[in-house]
């Protein structure tokens, strides 16, 4: 069981450096993720945005030959401390990926309930009420309520992505990490998901990686800009602040160059 | 701007007739090769069916061979039962171990996994008679010939096939699916059992059926382990047993036309059994693709 499932958690990234095969991908990051806010991570490809995101739920360490130094504090407790249970951490910090990842052997409903069933937090059974709640939060219930037993792959791309969001929300996490959730979606599905992000931030802490600066401007309360000095160099956090300030009067030249389209 | 565009366009046009003729030639070659392969397979199947159907009948499926191989009549009932029992046991022994080894190799990696991958490749190339001799030395020499010893030999032959086929299918399951499951707070083991293996199921079944087909046809290792028993129907695998492959062999080498007719009927039976098992397994695994809690 997760402790207190209603509270959105705060994340403190402290002096974090993440490595693949001993090479740092993102270095020396200090970042505070405030609860009940949307924090966007922007920056050019290779600046370590996704890696940083994957450090926030421990998924980074499931990659072979990946390692990290520094701390990630989830409500003041280091998720990489000895004795911390990665399975429990990932129940508290959910994640949605760039590509919708429906489990192909399961129906829509079983996909939504997968985290609860497989995490042994819910016994066998239909549990349609739980599925309905999660799908409603993800704004998908009206569209799929008659297709709960259909294969998940029969949904459209945008519906699949919202189903994945419902699947992540069904576990009742405190934080939701989103890694370019709209990268493969059409503009209408994108706007639907952005509306959804604004809604769920009332109850969750949301961190979103995006390549789309308009998207960051539209949904994020806080924006963090990462970049690297050259290709192959680790990404570093350049600037973080209220989204409006970052886009209207960035303090650093590289930030201004990036958001005005001069680099990246 | 215009000049390079026009030269490249004219260059493309210059090469066009040649590329068109190469395209036609390659299409013809590929069609011929494919047609040749299909024709060869149909020829083999047709020949086996033509020869086998001359004798195959209810009598063949329900009787044991006559004591004197030159006599007409009788059948391979004991071989059919023996093949199913021995290959069944071999499948039961090799499939769980093989799938577990493949899961370890693909999902957990490490030095042991690399060693397992290397040994699997070596074992696939091992002549089956060597496996038979190995089981003979370790088992038969102490406990005598038995269907069980044959099943162990066939299981050893099937094991690397099952491992390799399963590992290849598991590698095809996208990393994103595993990560999506892990990100839901599902443990690694659960992810493998409930997400990765079900996703790979139909591919694993196909691989297992290839191994079963291979084991069904193996003869050499069984000569050294199950030995054969042409006299009566034996259902106890702790005693020497006949199989279809052994009976095809023993009847084909006699030189009597009657025995050879039985051998042909046996080959057709073998082909049909493998076909029925493969199609059946494919149907069962496909039916399970979308599994609902209801």
From TrEMBL, chain A:
<dbReference type="Pfam" id="PF00005">
    <property type="entry name" value="ABC_tran"/>
</dbReference>
<feature type="domain" description="ABC transporter">
    <location>
        <begin position="11"/>
        <end position="253"/>
    </location>
</feature>
<keyword id="KW-0547">Nucleotide-binding</keyword>
<dbReference type="InterPro" id="IPR005670">
    <property type="entry name" value="PstB-like"/>
</dbReference>
<dbReference type="InterPro" id="IPR003593">
    <property type="entry name" value="AAA+_ATPase"/>
</dbReference>
<dbReference type="InterPro" id="IPR003439">
    <property type="entry name" value="ABC_transporter-like_ATP-bd"/>
</dbReference>
<keyword id="KW-0067">ATP-binding</keyword>
<keyword id="KW-0813">Transport</keyword>
<dbReference type="InterPro" id="IPR027417">
    <property type="entry name" value="P-loop_NTPase"/>
</dbReference>
<dbReference type="GO" id="GO:0005524">
    <property type="term" value="F:ATP binding"/>
</dbReference>
<protein>
    <submittedName>
        <fullName>ATP-binding cassette domain-containing protein</fullName>
    </submittedName>
</protein>
<dbReference type="InterPro" id="IPR017871">
    <property type="entry name" value="ABC_transporter-like_CS"/>
</dbReference>
<keyword id="KW-1278">Translocase</keyword>
From TrEMBL, chain B:
<dbReference type="InterPro" id="IPR005672">
    <property type="entry name" value="Phosphate_PstA"/>
</dbReference>
<dbReference type="InterPro" id="IPR000515">
    <property type="entry name" value="MetI-like"/>
</dbReference>
<keyword id="KW-1133">Transmembrane helix</keyword>
<keyword id="KW-0813">Transport</keyword>
<comment type="function">
    <text>Part of the binding-protein-dependent transport system for phosphate; probably responsible for the translocation of the substrate across the membrane.</text>
</comment>
<keyword id="KW-0592">Phosphate transport</keyword>
<keyword id="KW-1003">Cell membrane</keyword>
<feature type="transmembrane region" description="Helical">
    <location>
        <begin position="263"/>
        <end position="284"/>
    </location>
</feature>
<feature type="transmembrane region" description="Helical">
    <location>
        <begin position="80"/>
        <end position="106"/>
    </location>
</feature>
<dbReference type="InterPro" id="IPR035906">
    <property type="entry name" value="MetI-like_sf"/>
</dbReference>
<dbReference type="InterPro" id="IPR051408">
    <property type="entry name" value="Phosphate_transprt_permease"/>
</dbReference>
<keyword id="KW-0472">Membrane</keyword>
<feature type="transmembrane region" description="Helical">
    <location>
        <begin position="20"/>
        <end position="49"/>
    </location>
</feature>
<feature type="transmembrane region" description="Helical">
    <location>
        <begin position="118"/>
        <end position="139"/>
    </location>
</feature>
<feature type="domain" description="ABC transmembrane type-1">
    <location>
        <begin position="80"/>
        <end position="281"/>
    </location>
</feature>
<protein>
    <recommendedName>
        <fullName>Phosphate transport system permease protein PstA</fullName>
    </recommendedName>
</protein>
<comment type="similarity">
    <text>Belongs to the binding-protein-dependent transport system permease family. CysTW subfamily.</text>
</comment>
<feature type="transmembrane region" description="Helical">
    <location>
        <begin position="145"/>
        <end position="163"/>
    </location>
</feature>
<feature type="transmembrane region" description="Helical">
    <location>
        <begin position="195"/>
        <end position="216"/>
    </location>
</feature>
<dbReference type="Pfam" id="PF00528">
    <property type="entry name" value="BPD_transp_1"/>
</dbReference>
<keyword id="KW-0812">Transmembrane</keyword>
């Amino acid at each position: 069981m997760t402790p207190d499932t209603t509270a959105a958690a705060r994340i403190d990234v402290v002096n974090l450096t993440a490595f693949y095969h001993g090479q740092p991908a993102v270095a020396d990051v200090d970042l505070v993720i405030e609860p009940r806010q949307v924090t966007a991570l922007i920056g050019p490809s290779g600046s370590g945005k996704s890696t940083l995101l994957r450090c926030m739920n421990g998924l980074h360490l499931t990659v072979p030959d990946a390692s990290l130094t520094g701390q990630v504090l989830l409500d003041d407790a280091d998720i990489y401390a000895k004795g911390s249970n990665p399975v429990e951490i990932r129940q508290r910090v959910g994640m949605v990926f760039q590509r919708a990842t429906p489990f192909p052997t399961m129906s829509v409903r079983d996909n939504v309930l997968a985290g609860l069933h497989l995490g042994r937090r819910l016994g066998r059974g239909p549990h349609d009420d739980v599925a309905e709640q999660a799908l409603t939060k993800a704004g998908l219930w009206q569209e799929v309520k008659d297709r709960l037993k259909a294969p998940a792959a029969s949904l459209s791309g945008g519906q699949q992505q919202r189903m994945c969001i419902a699947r992540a929300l069904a576990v009742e996490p405190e934080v939701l990490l989103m890694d370019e959730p709209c990268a493969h979606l059409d503009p209408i599905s994108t706007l639907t998901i952005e509306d959804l992000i604004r809604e769920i931030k009332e109850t969750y802490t949301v961190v979103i990686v995006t390549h789309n600066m308009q998207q960051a401007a539209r949904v994020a309360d806080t924006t963090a800009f990462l970049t690297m000095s050259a290709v192959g160099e680790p990404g570093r956090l350049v600037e973080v602040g209220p989204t409006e300030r970052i886009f209207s009067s960035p303090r650093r030249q590289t930030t201004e160059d990036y958001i005005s389209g001069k680099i990246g | 701007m215009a000049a390079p565009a026009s030269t490249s366009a004219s260059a493309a046009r210059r090469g066009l007739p040649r590329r068109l003729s190469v395209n036609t030639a390659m299409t013809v070659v590929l069609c011929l090769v494919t047609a040749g392969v299909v024709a060869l397979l149909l020829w083999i199947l047709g020949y086996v069916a033509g020869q086998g159907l001359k004798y195959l009948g209810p009598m063949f499926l329900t009787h044991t061979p006559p004591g004197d191989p030159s006599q007409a009549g009788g059948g391979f009932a004991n071989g059919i039962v023996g093949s199913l029992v021995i290959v069944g046991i071999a499948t039961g022994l090799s499939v769980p171990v093989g799938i577990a080894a493949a899961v370890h190799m693909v999902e957990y990696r490490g030095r042991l996994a690399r060693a397992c991958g290397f040994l699997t490749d070596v074992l696939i190339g091992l002549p089956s008679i060597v496996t038979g001799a190995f089981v003979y030395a370790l088992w038969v020499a102490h406990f005598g010939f038995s269907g069980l010893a044959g099943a162990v030999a066939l299981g050893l032959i099937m094991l690397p096939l099952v491992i390799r086929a399963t590992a290849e299918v598991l590698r095809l399951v996208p990393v994103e699916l595993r990560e999506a499951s892990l990100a839901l707070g599902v443990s690694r083991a659960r992810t493998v059992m409930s997400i990765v293996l079900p996703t790979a199921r139909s591919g694993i079944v196909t691989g297992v059926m290839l191994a079963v087909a291979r084991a069904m046809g193996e003869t050499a290792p069984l000569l050294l382990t199950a030995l054969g028993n042409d006299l009566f129907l034996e259902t106890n695998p702790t005693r020497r047993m006949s199989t279809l492959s052994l009976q095809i062999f023993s009847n084909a080498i006699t030189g009597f036309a009657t025995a050879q007719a039985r051998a042909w009927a046996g080959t057709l039976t073998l082909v049909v059994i493998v076909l029925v098992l493969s199609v059946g397994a494919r149907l069962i695994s496909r039916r399970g693709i979308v599994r609902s809690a209801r």
